[in-house]
Amino acid sequence: MQQAASSSTLVDALAVRRNAHANAIRVAGVLFVTALTAAAAQFSVPLPFTVVPFTLQPMVVLLGGLALGSRLGLASQVLYLLAGAAGLPVFAASATLPPGALRLLGPTGGYLLCYPIAAFIVGRLAERGFDRRYATSVLAMAAGLLVIYACGVLWLGLFATASAGGPAIGLRAALAAGVYPFFIADALKLIAAAGILPGFWRLLGRVSGH
User: What is the pTM of this model?
Assistant: First the structure.
């Protein structure tokens, strides 16, 4: 029983507490993270020296994976991408990046397409108890962020501009455009956000204790 409890995610723990509505709680969790990802995209800041805007999305993706687990975390981001590909205004507003499904083929497509993978990886670590303590939450979120960076840079450097008819900019230029301007800010956000899930677990423990 102790092993099963340690491998449950936050949404699973909440679902168990409301057993009659367990599936509804899981579905609501997926929809909430999808909506939160879309909302985070609207807080975007275009930067003059790169086509990649600054957004809050990566932290939402990683926190969603921690809270939902691997399969539900992945599902939340697949749903987000499907909504964007269908033309719903869920991607970051941009005067230069393509709209709708074409956004996934544009310069930032690698980051977006990797959101489900990153959420799955972070969720898998959460299922192993990484979301219970601050230090391991940092490690789990850092792993997911590295995956987002890696996929984003590979796409931006090797495929995105080539698919638009121009020469690929290469990995060095992609790192300068897609990682270096964001790394410090993302690291600070991660350090701050990593305490959220352990905090929820402590709160849930106190409520259960009463």
Answer: 0.90
Q: Determine the residue type at 142.
A: A
Q: Reduce the DSSP state of residue 100 to 3 states and report it.
A: helix
Distance, in Å, from the CA atom of 209 to the CA atom of 195, rounded to the nearest integer, reads 21
**Torsion (CA) 141, 112, 61, 31 in degrees, nearest 10:** -160
CA distances from 125 to 136, 142, 174, 201 (A): 9, 11, 29, 15
Q: Spelled out in words, what is the top-level CATH class assigned to the domain 2-209? A: mainly alpha
**Radius of gyration of the chain measured on its C-alpha atoms:** 18
Alpha helices in the chain (DSSP H): 2-6, 10-17, 22-42, 57-68, 70-85, 109-127, 134-154, 161-163, 171-178, 183-193, 196-209
**Upper half-sphere CA count for residue 180 (Cβ side, 13 Å):** 9
- Tens digits of per-residue pLDDT, 112-154? 999 999 999 999 999 999 999 999 999 999 999 999 999 999 9
Q: How far is CA 204 from CA 4, 13, 14, 28, 57, in A?
A: 17, 9, 9, 19, 26
SS3 assignment, position 54 = strand
